Amino acid sequence: MAEIPPGRVVLSDRRTRTRWPVDVAPFLLSAAPVTQEFYAQVTGERPGGFQGARLPVEGVSWTDAVRFCAALSEREGLRPAYRLRPDGSGAEWDPGADGYRLPTEAEWEHACRAGTTGPRYGELGAIAWYRENSGGRIRPVGGRRPNAWGLYDMLGNAWEWCWDLYDPQVYGPYRVLRGGGWADAHWSCRASVRRRSHPAFRIDDVGFRIARSAPGEAPRRPGAASL
After folding, report:
1. What's the whole-model pTM score?
2. Which segments of the chain are extended strands (E)?
């Protein structure tokens, strides 16, 4: 996993035309999205419409991603960061746990930008699989140029689930998606673009990558630990 340094990121939302700064503590983030092979090793399942060991796992819901984080943590003898509610309505996050988790959207954008300030960390065709170059399908991870912090596919290929609720007062349990996907136009593949979906939603251009809090660092989280 890549070591992501601390920093400050300014998030923005086009719908509400708001901007807000977030301080990000150091954390660890997987260099690429979780692959089908890795997902199958942990869960025994191979979801999604495309098949290939090095393809990003897709067709996974936010709840699936949270369960994967818990299962991987237990397999490696780490303290799980999440406890899912029995009714599937959400999860409780233990900020002191050393197990795997989803990045917050502030962590995601900070990591995506890797110190840059523009809409992307490089020329789109060189760093991302998107509508114009994907050939109409998801692609193996690591096939485009990484950002300055060694992270691949932060833009394009598969949208990535984040921990955060999008706007609970308006959209209830909907969670944040970031990064753009293989079927998206160029304007969706930007560091600042936010989308949302129900935590049970599954589709062939949505996956996830995993994070861990740095030892001794509590993540600066949005809202309460139970969401």
Report:
1. 0.93
2. 2-4, 7-13, 18-24, 27-29, 82-84, 91-93, 159-165, 175-178, 194-197, 206-207, 211-213
Cα–Cα distance measured from residue 85 to residue 218, given in angstroms and rounded to the nearest whole number: 22
Q: Return left, alpha or beta for 177; rule: phi > 0 is left, psi -120 to 50 is alpha, else beta.
A: beta
Q: What average pLDDT does this structure show over 140-165?
A: 98
121-126 own/partner pairs: CB under 8 Å, 24+ apart = 121/147, 121/148, 121/154, 121/155, 121/191, 122/147, 124/155, 124/156, 124/186, 124/189
Q: Average per-residue pLDDT in the chain?
A: 93
Cβ 30 vs Cβ 1: under 8 Å: yes
Look at residue 178 and give its three-state secondary structure.
strand
Question: What letter would DSSP give residue 101?
Answer: B
The dihedral of CA 219, 222, 224, 227: what is its sign?
negative
Q: How confident is the model at residue 166 (pLDDT cuts 50, 70, 90)?
A: very high
CB neighbourhood size of 173 (10 A): 15
**Residues 172 and 197: beta-carbon distance below 8 Å:** no
